[in-house]
Amino acid sequence: MTWRLCLPDDRLKWTEGWDSHPIWPAEPDVSIFKDLVWSRYARPGLADSLKEQLEIEFLDDGAHHKVYNVKVPGWSAPLIFRVAVPIDPTLKMENEMSSLRFLREKTRVPVPGFVAWGPAAGTKLGYDWCLMEKLPGVELRSIWRTMPWERKLELTDRLADVLSQLWKPEYKFDQIGSIYVPRQATDNTAADDTMAGNATTTRYVVGPAVDNCFFSGRRRYPHQHRGPFPSCRKWLESLITLEREVITTTKTLLDHKEDMTAAHRDADWERLVEDELEIDDEDEFLDEYDEALDTVQAYYKLVPEIFSAGDPEANIFVDPDTFELTGILDWESAMTLPDWHGRDYPLLLQAPDPFDKTMPRIPDTYDEEDERYNAALVASRDRWELRLLRHRYDEKLEKLGWKDWRPSSSTARAKKLFLEGVSMLSSDLRGAKRHLVWAQDALDEDKRQRRAAGVQHAGEVVHGVAGTAGHGLDAQA
Q1: How far apart (Å, rounded) are the C-alpha atoms in residues 288 and 426?
Q2: In 10, 145, 205, 232, which residue has its Cα 20 to 30 A from 455's Cα atom?
Q3: Distance of alpha carbon 455 from its chain centroid, rounded?
Q4: What pTM, to 2 d.p., does this model score?
Q5: Which CATH superfamily is domain 2-212 in?
């Protein structure tokens, strides 16, 4: 029974390797797409015979989605139909559609509008899906290195202007979690005024957090609390509890191999241990088990000290001729988060500082197939450019009234180190212990600075909207 509960036979399978991604249980049936699109899109006056003219063609696939072009009779705007692999059924899609609606209604962030969406339950498709507008332009990464420098500066200014809208005080929420539109308020179909971009009075609520830390690997199977959380303290305690559950259930599975199902016995044991139980060595895990639980308790103990009770470029689209920003995609893991965690540079601008003291020359080519290609020179030039663009981003934000926008105190550093360490509890015990020490050191440094300045520790402020790392829906909401 233990194995059936903690590692079900019908679980989602993943590919091997460092870039592991989910394996689709079955190929989506394109013929069903047409029925879904027509049922949600057809308007009075459109003859059913036009349904046969509806065209759906495969466009692209990523780690979690398959995307199809949709051409609908009588509709000039291009659409896409997107199907999601069941990593976090319903909630992931529902949060993304609600976040898009929020952004279109409340901000000037250029995001696609959605026509309709639906959960896997109750459809023949068997997957969450959405029908949405297709953004014009091309992915920024496809032309980034050929863009003129002045255009890169202009785009950086534009990103600063757009993403800083998400930090406005009026977009603050009082809980940590993900954004939803109450289900009784929507039939999963976008209203015409939303599609047109007109302001509405939609009510948004904070609900369960859509975050990889809650559904990666076996984390989806144990009992867990995903929020919404009233404070950072409760949020971190929930994450620690989940990692503890992963550790303890791993030992339970190893101690009760007799409960393995036939499917488990047929699997390669070494791969099962490494990929499914997420441990490198069975004997080493058992030897360090008590130490791992002691480390978990140390994290629990430090939570109240750090958190007071009160509290990439692949998704940016540009015009290939003018390099103007046309839209930002992938808000599927948008969350309401505190400033210390949510505010950062867009992933596009994140990179280590350059090693060279002076900017290197422009490479002869960026084509890796060309014999003149110099990987070291390309990497060095990229780091230099990105550092200059980060400075530009800072300057633009200061002009917009966001001086010192990025939390840099010792307390903020302690919180970040603590959160990183929590994510390592069940997978990297040594790393988790190091981060615990570093977080304590940063906290002690903050206390020394406050005592020297005669300042009392301040409570936390909850909680802005922050998106996926790629673009920072750091819209503290």
Answers
A1: 11
A2: 232
A3: 36
A4: 0.83
A5: Phosphorylase Kinase; domain 1 (3.30.200.20)
